[in-house]
Amino acid sequence: MRTPNVGCRTFLKLLETHTPAQVFSESTAALTALGLKPTSIQAIKNPDWAAVDYDLEWLSHPNNQVIHLLDPLYPELLKEISDPPPLLFIRGHAELLSLPQLAMVGSRNPSSLGKETAFSFAQTLSHCGFVITSGLALGIDAASHKGALHAQGYTIAVAGTGLDRVYPANHKELALEIVATGAMISEFPPGTTAKANHFPRRNRIISGLSQGLLVVEAAKQSGSLITARMALEQNREVFAIPGSIHNPLARGCNALIREGAKLVETTEDILEELHQYIQQDTKNVLTVTQSMLDLEQQTLLNLVMFSPTSVDNLVENTGLSVEAISSTLLILELQGYLEATAGGCYTRIK
Asked: What DSSP state is assigned to residue 61?
């Protein structure tokens, strides 16, 4: 892992004919014959023991471990991809890696409705027995992890850095919450900093671990679309939540649907495809809780669109006074059914 110019494919190719111990005992000529570059051979003959000691020191801490491709804890689904990571560094509960997982990805700068949708879907799918897997990024990733945690379910964060650091840094508290009941994993050894090319590599693990991938909000040029295409190449189910043709954050999802991703409006659309992985009766979980509203509140809520709706429009459709409508709107906002938007309008969010 610490040898320069030895990536996943070279590592896996070497493992076809050698144990790691045999690689280190080979002659320079034999290593050259295996196709290794001079810099790699030099590193094998003179290992960077300081880096290895750093790894061992990290592994000495509770909750930290590393598993290899032949370890019983290594997830079978991940072995199926074309370039599975030979080693996985783990903080937290490694046994979760083999449970049914639903990956959730999307924009780092989502709308408030997008964050609410991700949180809500993750919460319900957690109740249904899925581990929610994402990348700890800002926006949809974070909302997905938080939804699973709120449901007291399990969530896995796949990092693009070594696990001795958290990226982005303001997610340190979220990372601690995830590790307490779930897991953080990385193919990168401790000390590895964030680099742009690490995140596409991370994304293939997110999709590779999961039975399906849900894209919540994504612009047309988005890393989430790269993850979705990786998922398709890995023969995973791909789901996308559609959006308005006027919303740039919906264009990526709409494009995926045109290309064959399953259009998702409710969690039931996902469960139809992945029902064999459901671990408990979800009937009560999937029941809409709007029955808790009284008739007047329910009637008004049904008139608020998932796009900005003005109070004047509601007055016209109900015949109620502005005061009565404003009072009910405030109650619905406090209960999380809608939110106030610019221009004195309201948008329904669930």
From this structure: S
